[in-house]
Design goal:
Helices cover 63% and strands 0% of the residues. The chain has four helices and no strands. The longest helix has 20 residues.
Length: 83
Amino acid sequence: MNIQWENEINTKTQEYINQAYISYDTTLDEQFNEKEVINIYYTLNNNKATFLDEISNELISLLIKNNPNQMTQLINVICNKNS
């Protein structure tokens, strides 16, 4: 590879990395709280098709309504699984 191209690629890569660090929002690393999960209950639309997981919005709503604390814990476990 041409040394000039290699330098350009390295420079651009470093610029992208630096930009990612500048725009990084630490609040995205926080766990969900129960209030946020309860808000999901009020915003989910029923009568929608399921996705690949085949979990309906009605089921999610029912679980949140009956066990908001447990659902909050479950969501946080799932979100932190690969951390």
